[in-house]
């Protein structure tokens, strides 16, 4: 069936099978391979993307459910996402990098929805994203750093 | 830089590799833990492909596709292919398999009691191995003995990227792209499995999304994909689902040890003996020998025990095969010894640090089980206890401690190629990075050696063509072997510059072209001694505090080191509290998704107090190992902290007590 999905600000009209998962649509149809598949059961969060600003697990959402919605992935050039990415680089918030796009998209969601996300809030909202390499410590540090930078930039622009 | 590549989503993992006309492979797997296969119809099955994948030609090795019977849930029976990923899964239903279910064995204890699972065997003992010299307790000097059974259940690597392979036969050469810790080991294995010659195959490294020992191994699915690629003359891709991973990937741990310590009243241990059982799963795997070897040769660890003997029994069960998990027998060895020494301390009413001091040594030594301890362990333990003010702290906190040996798998060395071209330096390492961030120390070392900007240096994907030899990334060896071969290769390149221009400077290097390959041979395994403490309050998961006192030699890159400690620290805590594979009595896997497998989440980050000691090693880069130290040192220390509070001895991992850390199981 035909779908019309906005991915990172660009509209894609495609004829797809109704059963196609959103993650397959992104990876196989659009060749946006930054979104990863880790578990197929919406537990690991490697496939996390934003749909209309809300974080979702794209391995358990059908592409047709995203019809006429806006999807944001790791390939987005949103400047706020760049701040987060740089914080992950600065704080070494990754090792193998496989969970990283999902972690960053979830970070984006956390920081967009809570300007004063404290450590407790961040940790709770990261429970749906698994990382096997870092023990999450450097990821937590990256998120805190991104939050500081974003606040700094907001106060400068005010 | 590699960090930027990954944060931008531009990593090239195995599922990102695509070719035109590529076929997706799906595998028909056994739903039974044990069954006769009366008939298979459809797909690529063992009527056509009869092959094996072990390095050792053991009588009980597993065929890549089941022949006449299946012995674990998830065993490969047939493969189906389609150009569409979804359709290849649909095709699984097109294969007809006629089973006759048989009784299954799902644990070591079960296997020791029940009839043999394989025809032609009298029981479920696959092999028996001895270490040390057998002794009679009448002949040794001791006042008391303590005995216990320590059981460490299976733990699976569960990297967030599952296993995967792409095989592409083109121009008479089989190109294999794989998520792996060693393209060279896989090349050797595939050549043997499919009877290929050296020039018939090139194995390519791609970004590897975590490995933890598992991806050092060759698996049936890789052989099947390669065969199919040659048969169909099309690229073939196989990507494992998480359920397949949990069912079929080769799991680590799965060790039961029945141990007796003989000791004097002052705490000096004079003898150790017992039997170690390894859950091998349904068939022999090469990893069995390494895992068992590490346990039975390293059990006495940092302590000199005059009389030691162990019998190792490899036990068959109707489960997926045994493999590697971070440490591969070394953590098991340490957990066994440290749990036993705590038991002895309790029996003697001694402090757990005092009893360790009594058995640690002033000099390097060779243990009766065959471990060469290169450093004295007592002065190290004294320094660690002093640093953390142990005797004072142990009165305030529920402290467990652990003194451990990290035997680093430095032999047989490692290979490297450095290519300088167009002002850039490209590095290829024979040990394939499986997500530890080696690029950080590669840039740091070569930046210093060459006197150039780190941003000009990159660690590139290697293959078995650009590096004719290579070893792998395991056994806490990377810092030592990769760092050292890098320095050696850099030295060769600098000499090339001097030969050509009479002197070395970085401009001369970058403005010209150089290309050198070097294999740095190491003919023994180095080791180091490390110390951990853990304190906790069993009512609060966030109370867990890990104290680290590690001798790392020269630190090559502090970010790499901290990443390794924090990552391994959480894995070690998980292994004690919740992480395992659970099976029903008839061998059905219960932990079928990653949430059930007990991996810890971000709200369980422990606290750390880390002290790094830098006593340089004898290697060119002066480094010592790190990767497995947390797994070796933390579990038993944490178990001690818990048992101090519950009053219940911990001898089983995971502890499986849901009253503990109520916040953990909410």
Quick structural overview:
The complex is a heterodimer of chains A (about 160) and B (about 675). Chain A is about 40% helix and about 15% strand.
Task: Write up this protein.
- The complex is a heterodimer of chains A (158) and B (666).
- Chain A is of the alpha+beta class and 158 residues long.
- Chain A has two domains: 2-72, Beta-grasp domain (Ubiquitin-like (UB roll)), CATH 3.10.20.30; 79-157, Orthogonal Bundle (DNA polymerase, domain 1), CATH 1.10.150.
- Chain A has five helices and five strands; from the N terminus they run ββαβββαααα.
- A five-stranded mixed β-sheet of chain A has the order 2-1-5-3-4, with helices on one face.
- In chain B, 28% of the residues lie in helices and 27% in strands.
- With 666 residues, chain B is α+β, with helices and mostly antiparallel strands.
- Chain B folds into three domains: 14-102 and 158-248, Aldehyde oxidase/xanthine dehydrogenase, molybdopterin binding domain (Aldehyde Oxidoreductase, domain 4), CATH 3.30.365; 252-408 and 526-665, Aldehyde Oxidoreductase, domain 4 (2-Layer Sandwich), CATH 3.30.365; 413-521, Aldehyde oxidase/xanthine dehydrogenase, molybdopterin binding domain (Aldehyde Oxidoreductase, domain 4, 2-Layer Sandwich), CATH 3.30.365.
- In chain B, a hairpin with a 2-residue loop joins β23 (527-537) and β24.
- Chain B is built from 16 helices and 26 strands.
- In chain B, α7 packs parallel to α8 (330-348) and α15 (558-577) crosses α16.
- At the A-B interface, α1, α2, α3, α4 and α5 of A face α1 and α15 of B.
């Amino acid at each position: 069936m035909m779908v019309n999905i906005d991915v990172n600000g660009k509209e894609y009209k495609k004829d797809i099978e109704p059963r196609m998962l959103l993650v397959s649509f992104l990876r196989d149809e659009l060749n946006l391979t930054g979104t990863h598949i880790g578990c197929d059961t919406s537990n690991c969060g490697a496939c996390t993307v934003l749909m209309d600003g809300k974080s979702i697990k794209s391995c358990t959402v059908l592409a047709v459910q995203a019809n006429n919605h806006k999807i944001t992935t790791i390939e987005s050039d949103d400047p706020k996402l760049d701040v987060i990415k740089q914080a992950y680089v600065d704080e070494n918030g990754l090792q193998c990098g496989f969970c990283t796009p999902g972690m960053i998209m979830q970070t984006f969601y956390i920081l967009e929805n809570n300007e004063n996300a404290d450590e407790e809030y961040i940790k709770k909202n990261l429970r749906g994203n698994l990382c096997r390499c870092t023990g999450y410590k450097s990821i937590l540090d990256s998120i805190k750093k991104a939050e500081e930078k974003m606040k700094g930039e907001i106060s400068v622009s005010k | 830089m590699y960090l930027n590549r990954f944060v931008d989503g531009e990593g090239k993992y195995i599922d990102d590799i695509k070719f035109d006309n590529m076929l997706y492979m799906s595998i028909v797997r056994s739903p039974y833990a044990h069954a006769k296969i009366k008939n298979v119809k459809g797909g690529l099955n063992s009527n056509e492909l009869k092959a094996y994948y072990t390095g050792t030609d053991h009588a009980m090795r597993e065929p890549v596709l089941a022949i006449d019977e299946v012995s674990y849930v998830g065993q490969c029976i047939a493969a189906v292919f389609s150009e569409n990923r979804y359709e290849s899964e649909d095709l699984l239903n097109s294969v007809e398999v006629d089973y006759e279910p048989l009784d299954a064995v799902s644990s070591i204890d079960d296997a020791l009691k029940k009839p043999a699972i394989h025809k032609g065997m009298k029981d479920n003992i696959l092999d028996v191995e001895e270490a040390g010299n057998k002794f009679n307790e009448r002949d040794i000097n001791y006042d008391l003995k303590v005995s216990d059974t320590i059981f460490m259940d299976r733990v699976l690597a569960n990297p967030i990227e599952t296993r995967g392979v792409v095989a592409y036969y083109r121009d008479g050469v089989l190109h294999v792209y794989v998520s792996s810790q060693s393209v060279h080991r896989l090349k050797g294995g595939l050549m043997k499995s499919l009877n290929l010659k050296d020039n018939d195959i090139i194995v390519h490294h791609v970004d590897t999304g975590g490995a933890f020992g598992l991806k050092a191994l060759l698996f049936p699915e890789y052989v099947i994909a390669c065969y199919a690629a040659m048969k169909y003359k099309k690229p073939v891709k196989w990507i494992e689902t998480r359920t397949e991973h949990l069912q079929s990937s080769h799991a680590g741990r799965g060790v039961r040890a029945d141990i007796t310590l003989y000791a004097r009243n002052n705490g000096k241990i004079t003898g150790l003996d017992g039997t170690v059982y390894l859950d091998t799963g349904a068939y022999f795997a090469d990893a069995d020998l390494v895992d068992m070897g590490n346990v039975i040769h390293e059990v006495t660890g940092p302590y000199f025990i005059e009389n030691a003997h162990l019998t190792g029994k490899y036990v068959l069960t109707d489960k997926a095969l045994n493999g590697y998990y971070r440490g591969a027998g070394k953590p098991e060895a340490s957990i066994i010894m440290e749990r036993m020494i705590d038991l002895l301390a309790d029996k003697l009413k001694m402090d757990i640090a005092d009893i360790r001091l009594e058995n640690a040594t002033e000099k390097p030594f060779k243990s009766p089980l065959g471990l060469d301890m290169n450093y004295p362990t007592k002065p190290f333990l004294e320094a660690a206890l002093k640093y953390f003010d142990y005797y004072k702290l142990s009165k305030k906190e529920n402290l467990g401690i652990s003194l451990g040996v990290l035997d680093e798998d430095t032999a047989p060395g490692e290979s490297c190629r450095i290519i300088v071209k167009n002002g850039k330096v490209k590095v290829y390492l024979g040990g394939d990075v499986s997500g530890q961030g080696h690029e950080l120390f590669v840039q740091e070392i070569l930046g210093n050696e060459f006197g150039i900007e780190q941003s000009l240096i990159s660690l590139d994907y290697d293959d078995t063509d650009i590096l004719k030899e290579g070893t792998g990334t395991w056994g806490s060896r990377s810092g030592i072997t990769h760092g050292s071969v890098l320095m050696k290769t850099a030295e060769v390149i600098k000499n090339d510059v001097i030969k050509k221009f009479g002197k070395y400077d970085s401009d001369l290097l970058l403005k010209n072209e150089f290309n050198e390959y070097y294999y740095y041979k190491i003919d023994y395994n180095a080791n180091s001694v490390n110390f951990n403490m853990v304190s906790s309050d069993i009512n609060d998961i966030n109370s867990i505090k890990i104290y680290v006192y590690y001798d790392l030699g020269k630190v090559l890159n502090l970010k790499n080191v901290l990443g390794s400690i924090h990552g391994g620290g959480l894995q070690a805590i998980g292994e004690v509290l919740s992480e395992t594979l659970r099976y029903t009595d008839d061998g059905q896997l219960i932990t079928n998704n990653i949430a059930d497998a007990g991996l810890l989440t971000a709200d369980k980050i422990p606290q750390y107090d880390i002290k790094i000691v830098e006593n340089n090693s004898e290697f060119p880069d002066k480094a010592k190992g790190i990767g497995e130290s947390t797994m070796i040192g933390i579990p038993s220390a944490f178990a001690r902290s818990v048992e101090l509070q519950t009053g219940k001895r911990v001898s089983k991992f995971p502890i499986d007590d849901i009253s503990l850390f109520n916040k953990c199981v909410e």
